[in-house]
Write a structure and sequence with these properties.
The protein is an alpha+beta fold. The protein is 39% helix and 21% strand. α3 (27-63) packs antiparallel against α4. The chain binds one RNA strand through residues 37-38, 41-42, 44-46, 48-49, 51-52, 54-60, 62-63, 68, 71-72, 74-76, 78-79, 93, 223-224, 244, 246, 365, 369, 373, 375.
Length: 424
RNA sequence: GGAGAGCUGGCCGAGUGGUCGAAGGCACUUCCCUGCUAAGGAAGCAUACGGGCUUAAAUCUGUAUCGAGGGUUCGAAUCCCUCGCUCUCCGCCA
């Protein structure tokens, strides 16, 4: 959520910045709402002040045993007017709030301008794609004989669900373990186990609601509604919701390995083969809660934390700075890590690291006590370190052998009982 | 699932219709005193939003907030209703 003060004081500039990312802000509507809000709020508060004053007088007069009928008469008509004003004020504030909740974050000045992913800017490219001396297969064809079973996944649950067996399942687990161990032991994140179902408040806090409800899976239980997490960014970031943490506690660095559930509404027909795009996938997530002055430093570090995984797995990748038109709702700046997929002959997103500055913190009321002892909004960052399913895809494709087997990446051998090759 | 208890400021905890944003204590900040650590004294110490002043801050002022929402009342932390959460006992259960 944007700071409403910024909109009040500097509306034109905010509108211009939002326009850069393709968002049309209804400034006229906002101005009209604000104007009425101001009038109604001032009037309401004046009436409330009058009522409080009079009531106080009644109390004092009664204590002294004086006659109160004169004062009572004075306050008689106040109630109805006040009630009407209060109701209207609530309505206006809700409208303004709803409006703000649907406005995306402002891009950082360093973000390249553009409309779509074609305008993203490559920052660096690491590793050299392997040259194959045989006809390569995509991950689905490589994995099928080794235990990657899309048909059974579809039977159990439908499209975009996959069953893994045997060494493929174990490789998948090894990847997650390796990532989690790296983030905790080498990069200083605290390992968390979090709920997979959350309430609406949590999703409003991180920005998935109210705007993107259709992307989520939800469950009705008795009278309550819970949502399956689309990423553990939601649970990890919400740990500081409604909290004021001491200055010394920052930065807070959290990580978790969880499944992620996404309805993938609007991506029908995209990536239908294989496990690039699933309704359920595992991810090791990194979240940092930091001092506002440190958030861009933290962003670069977190990209490095994700890159280290790819480097350890010896997977070629590139780092891309997302353009204004391709960034997510809550981000001021985002780097994507794209891993090389030889069968697609291209780089595909495997991690996304974003700084949200105070956008989520304002929704979450997540604050710290600053140097002067005053509460101030924190900055929040999140990033995948990494998406486990897509990493499995990358390993299958990049480590495939002519005989149909898959070589186990060296760093994983300890997690795989020293297995060297996965064979049918 | 059954029965009961509770939810007040950073923490503990008083407060059952009126001058309560809320006693008292702890913690914290500043100052005083005391020749060390300790002890004693004074003051300060919630958040959000609106308005005035201001380049801005400080400050002043108003409103709201005692789990949440609604109601009764001139007036609600206090009374009524609904919901949420926590805890205890019983049952069930990985």
């Amino acid at each position: 959520m944007l700071d409403i003060q910024a909109l009040r004081n500097d509306l034109d500039s905010v509108v211009a910045q939002l326009h850069k990312r393709g968002f049309a802000f209804d400034a006229a509507k906002f101005t009209a709402l604000e104007q009425e809000r101001k009038t109604v709020q001032t009037r309401t508060q004046d009436l409330q002040a009058k009522r409080n004053n009079t009531s106080k007088q009644i109390g004092m007069a009664k204590a002294k045993g004086e006659d109160i009928s004169a004062i009572m008469a004075e306050v008689a008509g106040l109630g109805d007017q006040l009630k009407a004003d209060e109701a209207r004020l609530t309505e206006l504030q809700k409208e303004l709030q709803d409006m703000l909740l649907n406005v995306p974050n402002l891009p950082h000045e360093s973000v390249p301008q553009g409309k779509s992913e074609e305008d993203n800017v490559e920052v660096r490219r690491i590793g050299t794609p392997r040259v194959f001396d045989f006809e390569i297969k995509d991950h689905a064809d490589v994995g099928a004989p080794l235990g990657l079973d899309f048909d059974t996944g579809a039977k159990l649950s439908g499209a975009r669900f996959t069953l893994m067996r045997g060494h493929i399942a174990k490789l998948h687990r090894a990847l997650a373990q390796f990532m989690l161990d790296t983030q905790t032991e080498k990069h200083g994140y605290t390992e968390c186990y979090t709920p997979y179902m959350v309430n609406a408040e949590s999703l409003i806090g991180t920005g998935q609601l109210p705007k993107f409800e259709e992307d989520l899976f939800s469950l009705n239980h008795n009278d309550s509604k819970l949502y399956l997490i689309p990423t553990s960014e939601v649970t990890l970031t919400n740990t500081v919701r409604d909290e004021i943490v001491p200055l010394e506690a920052l930065p807070i660095k959290l990580t978790a390995h969880t499944p992620c559930f996404r309805s993938e509404a609007g991506s029908y027909g995209r990536d239908t083969k294989g496990m690039i795009r699933q309704h359920q996938f595992d991810k090791v997530e990194m979240v940092q809660i930091v001092h506002p002055e440190k958030s861009y430093e933290a962003l670069e570090q977190m990209v490095g934390h994700a890159e280290n995984i790819l480097q350890a797995l010896e997977l070629p990748y590139r780092v891309v700075s997302l353009c204004t038109g391709d960034m997510g709702f809550g981000a001021t700046k985002t780097y994507d890590l794209e891993v090389w997929l030889p069968a697609q002959n291209t780089y595909r997103e495997i991690s996304s690291v974003s700084n949200c500055e105070a956008f989520q913190a304002r929704r979450l009321q997540a604050r710290f006590r600053n140097e002067n002892g005053k509460p101030e909004l924190v900055h929040t960052l999140n990033g995948s370190g990494l998406a486990v399913g897509r990493t499995l895809v990358a390993v299958l494709e990049n480590y495939q052998q002519a005989d149909g087997s898959v070589k186990v990446p060296q760093v994983l051998s300890a997690y795989m009982n020293n297995l060297e090759y996965i064979k049918a």
